[in-house]
Amino acid sequence: MSYKQLLRTAKLLFITCILVACSGERVSDEQWEHSDLSSYAAVYSPNGKYVLVGDTDAPARLWDLENNKVLYTWQNNEEVGTTTAVAFSGDGKVAATSEQDVIVLWEVATGKPMMRLSFPVKIKSMALSPQGDYVLLALYDRTAVYFDVIANRVLQIFEHDGKAVNSPINQLINTVALSPSGKYALTGGDDTTARLWRLETGKQLRSWKHETPVNIVAFYPKGGYVLTGAGNGQTHFWNMKSGKEKYTLRTSPWPKDMSLPNYPSFKTTTSAIDFSSDGKYLVTGHPSQKICLWHVPNGDNIECWQVARRQALRPGVVLQAVAFSPDNDAIYSESGNGIGQMWKIK
Fold it and tell me: Are 173 and 194 in contact (CB under 8 A)?
């Protein structure tokens, strides 16, 4: 590296450090307490009108965002437990709550239970099909299963072998997603890979390698692309057909024509995402109190800000869910501290 390049690198690192240090909390336009103490999981409905919050040692609650009121209170068993995972079907008509090894499907229109499913192992993550008649589960036995709810049977079993991390055993699958078309599945695991599967055949189509375990995966709703993120690493946008990366999300001003340096300030964990209804924008939530807004076509960062903590002396807020409002004029967020917030897009 030449002297000019070294000088340019040092200057960019200095600018980045200033930006990181100066980032502060932004006052939300509205704020609500959606959990008495803390929440374990949260998900927004596809139409952006509701949020389902999985509480800690309390029933899950479905909130009407416009009126900020609880529509339904749901629990899977007679004894109240922690709701460990929540999901909506693609059409928003079915919701799912999971407590350890039990899933209940709920009819959103009436709040009534539709079906109760029990599994032999604990559930780590889940995703519902477009109509809610299938569910994809990441299980603690190091598999992901594609389950036919109506027929009550497993259709496909997906596994992450340990080759990517030189391990002789299969690796834990952390996160799953189903495509809007209902034809494909995404899984991300401790083997540092995200994998694309065809549901009809169970065949693996793609595998994308990361530096650290993959903790989040998602399909671009307009088709053709997927998003994958690694814990304390990078978040990538991939072309499904070619398998090539379109871009890496960058919160720093580091030039796109230069590889990101291997420094902590250039790495982050993405814990929540949502795309605007027109597909032009992406919002991401992070465990560091941070929310970021992006242009989807080129991956450029528009703005990042920090959410408020519930108590000043309790550092760290994990963003569990983010979403665009139905008119794309605002962004909603749910944090692990039990606080829901709304920011108008300026």
Answer: no
List, as one string, the DSSP characters of 117-148.
Answer: EE-SS-EEEEEE-TTSSEEEEEETTSEEEEEE
* Of 247, 254, 211, nearest in space to 232 by CA: 211
Nearest in space to 230 (alpha carbons), one of 258, 256, 250, 211: 211
Tell which residue, 1, 8, 20, has the closest CA to residue 264: 20
Backbone angles phi, psi at 158, to 5 degrees: -115, 140
CB-side neighbour CA atoms (13 Å) of 204: 14
- Return the amino acid letter for 103: I
Quick one: CA dihedral 214, 218, 219, 222, positive or negative?
Answer: negative
CB atoms within 10 A of CB 78: 6
Cα–Cα distance between 86 and 157 in angstroms, integer?
A: 21
Computed over its alpha carbons, how large is the radius of gyration of the chain?
20
Among candidates 62, 122, 52, 113, which has minimal Cα distance to 86?
A: 52
- With beta carbons less than 8 A apart as the criterion, state whether 300 and 291 touch: no
- 227-276 pLDDT, tens digit each: 999 999 999 999 999 999 999 999 877 787 788 887 777 788 999 999 99
And the tokens for 63?
């909130």
Q: What is the DSSP letter of 307?
A: P
CA distance 331 to 327: 10
151 vs 217: CA distance, rounded Å: 27
State the pTM of this model. Answer: 0.90
* Beta strand 319-324 pairing with 339-344: unpaired
The residue type at 123: I
